[in-house]
Design a protein that fits this description.
By secondary structure, this protein is an alpha/beta fold. The protein is 34% helix and 24% strand. It has a single domain, classed as Glutaredoxin, CATH 3.40.30.10. A hairpin with a 2-residue loop joins strand 4 and strand 5. Pfam families: BrxC.
């Protein structure tokens, strides 16, 4: 990886590896995430694979989740690959698009959201 890729991020697609992620790759996946929020909290992490800030926030967030005992379902959206779904989230849930962004749902409704350095496990 070159120096500039380390600073600004590369164009290579990076999918997070922790097992707790459920991926949103279709409108059906999004609908399932919203429906799941009736049973327990759902957190949707919107990530830009080309953004260094997004990568850093994601890695820090993943470390916190792996060491937590939160009863939350965690969903991941690669917003570069699925910008249409990111736009749908903004429209349907009434949350202005940001990246990175964490949106927390309960009973199909946004109960918390944050972006950039404000993203924290405590939001869930």
């Amino acid at each position: 990886m070159s120096f500039f890729n380390k600073i600004f991020g590369s164009s290579e697609e990076e999918i997070p590896s922790p097992e707790f992620w459920k991926y949103i790759e279709s409108e059906e996946d999004l609908n399932q995430a919203i429906a799941a929020s009736v049973e327990k909290k759902v957190a949707i992490f919107k990530h830009s694979t080309r953004c260094f800030i997004s990568k850093t926030v994601l890695k820090n967030f993943e470390k916190k989740v792996e060491n937590s005992d939160k009863n939350v379902e965690f969903y991941f959206l690669d917003l570069l690959a699925h910008r249409d779904l990111s736009n749908k989230i903004a429209d349907d849930l009434g949350v202005t698009h940001q990246s990175p962004q964490l949106i927390v749902l309960e009973n199909g409704v946004v109960v918390n959201h944050a972006s950039h350095q404000s993203i924290s496990l405590s939001l869930t």
